[in-house]
TrEMBL record:
GO molecular function, a single term: heme binding
Amino acid composition bias (Polar residues), ranges on this chain: 35-44
Keyword Repressor found: no
The family this protein is said to belong to: Belongs to the major facilitator superfamily. Feline leukemia virus subgroup C receptor (TC 2.A.1.28.1) family.
The species this protein was found in: Sparus aurata
Residue spans crossing the bilayer: 57-77, 97-117, 183-204, 224-244, 282-300, 320-339, 351-367, 373-393, 413-433, 439-460
Name the record gives this protein: Choline/ethanolamine transporter FLVCR1
Keyword set, alphabetical order: Cell membrane, Endoplasmic reticulum, Erythrocyte maturation, Glycoprotein, Membrane, Mitochondrion, Phosphoprotein, Receptor, Transmembrane, Transmembrane helix, Transport
Domain Major facilitator superfamily (MFS) profile: 58-467
Gene behind this protein: FLVCR2
Length: 467
């Protein structure tokens, strides 16, 4: 990814993609200094100093925390969709849209938000994300009445807008704060928070909101659920204000040192977008990534409907199956991140994981209706390990294919593709399930995963710059 390219660096220079000065005032103490290096410049004989700060771990875990809170809200309605349909007296599609609004909001807002990330940096983006996330939770607290469905839609919209500021950050945050041999692992941790939020979103709502017939009692349980998420989001927002820092005073890698030397007026967001759109292997990755993650979004949104169809009354186990999918995926993400840091085999690893996602989807599809929940837990876990584990692979492969373009811009295009396919697949699979059942719906997704596998294989025919 270019971290080994020697150049003349000024460690205190302003970031080319941030208008503000470094927010880390004062020099590091001995405890903060983990690594310090100087690499001579072939042109001028000057040296670039890099340093890793312990605070980088606090930054990435804080990001993961508000990403967790936001991802939890994405799925908290869908996993108890039958209960929400009864409480708000709406149809299944209305509840599905409470999840799909996350995907719909992302598409028009990603480009201005990515521009903001490039121009104003990580701290401004983090503050806006956590503020919107917190606002969404409190709006939903006020919506816990059967006649206030539109209020809960408004709260979910605020939360979905926060997601736009979140999804593109992991790779950018990893490259700004972490060393060259840590970026894939750090990116995986950033994605891990989002996955953990989805896992908690699968697990907690079915426990907090039992399927009772008394509307007053149901409203009480829903209100408790909303209050808990609002309290957590508020604490995280306060921590972001106090702790979250734009960047380390001294860059962590040679690539970041080089980036800080680029004058701001030499960077054009529009030109960067156009270069990415002309990058053939990257555009193939955008398509294949969208197909894979779009399938994951559809499976997650419709999981309650699929499980309840074959196992009536098992809302809590539907949540546990969702939890299994995501926890297995978190393990897959961490393993893939560590593997990439060690081997740099981006192309081969991406193809293998994609192919195994297809196989996992087929096994899940043909075993869902066997009547044994323990089988569903196993097959769903296998599907999650590879399908969710693919998420950080896509981010890091994109950075490898597009260096030195902004990580936020490449991630934004990947996520935009995922949201578009997520909406298409969720609506289409929902209608297929209603008409022909869950097997047909899952085979529908498997066909597109097969197409994505072929496209990923095509990317291997293009040369990729290796570190």
């Amino acid at each position: 990814m270019g971290d080994d390219t020697p150049t003349s660096h000024d460690p205190s220079a302003q970031d080319a993609k941030s208008d503000g000065p470094p927010l880390g005032a004062g020099g590091p103490d001995a405890g903060d200094q983990i690594e310090c290096s100087s690499i001579p410049n072939g042109d001028s004989g000057s040296a670039a100093t890099t340093r890793l700060y312990k605070k980088r771990w606090a930054i990435v875990f804080l990001f993961s925390s508000y990403s967790l809170s936001n991802a939890y809200q994405w799925i908290q309605y869908g996993i108890i969709s039958n209960i929400m349909m009864k409480f708000y007296n709406v149809d299944a599609m209305a509840v599905d849209w409470l999840s799909m609004v996350y995907m719909l909001t992302y598409i028009p807002f990603i480009f201005p938000v990515t521009w903001l990330l490039d121009k104003k940096g990580l701290r401004v983006t983090a503050l806006l994300a956590s503020a919107l996330n917190c606002a969404g939770t409190w709006i939903k607290v006020a919506s816990a009445q059967p006649d206030l469905f539109l209020v809960t839609v408004l709260g979910q919209f605020a939360s979905s807008l926060a997601e736009v500021f979140i999804l593109g950050m992991p790779s950018r945050l990893a490259s700004v704060w972490f060393g060259a041999d840590e970026v894939s692992t750090a990116c995986s941790i950033g994605v891990l928070g989002n996955q953990m939020g989805i896992a908690i979103g699968f697990l907690i709502p079915p426990i907090l909101v039992p399927n009772v017939d008394d509307m007053n009692e149901l409203a009480y349980h829903i209100r408790i659920m909303f209050y808990i998420s609002a309290g957590v989001a508020s604490v995280i927002f306060i921590l972001v204000i106090i702790v979250f820092q734009e960047r380390p005073e001294i860059p962590p890698s040679q690539a970041q040192a080089q980036a800080r030397n680029i004058p701001p007026d030499e960077y054009s967001y529009t030109a960067s977008i156009m270069r990415l759109l002309r990058n053939k292997p990257f555009m193939l990755l955008v398509l294949s990534y969208g197909l894979n993650v779009g399938c994951f979004y559809a499976v997650s949104t419709l999981l309650n409907r699929m499980i309840i169809e074959h196992y009536p009354g098992e809302e809590v186990n539907a949540g546990r199956i969702g939890l299994t999918i995501v926890v297995a995926g978190m393990v897959g993400s961490l393993i893939c991140g560590i593997w990439l840091d060690k081997t740099k085999t981006y192309k081969q690893t991406t193809l293998v994981v994609y192919l195994l996602s297809l196989i996992g989807m087929l096994v899940y599809a043909f075993t869902l209706n066997l009547g044994h929940l323990w089988v569903v837990f196993i097959t769903a876990g296998g599907l999650g390990f590879f399908m969710t584990g693919y998420l950080p692979l896509g981010f890091e492969f994109a950075v490898e294919l597009t260096y030195p373009e902004s990580e936020g811009t490449s991630s934004g295009l990947l996520n935009c593709s995922a949201q578009i396919f997520g909406i298409i697949f969720t609506i289409s699979q929902g209608k297929i399930i209603d008409k022909w059942g869950t097997l047909a719906g899952n085979i529908f997704l498997s066909i597109f995963l097969l197409i994505g596998t072929v496209i990923t294989g095509k990317i291997l025919t293009f040369p990729v710059k290796q570190e």
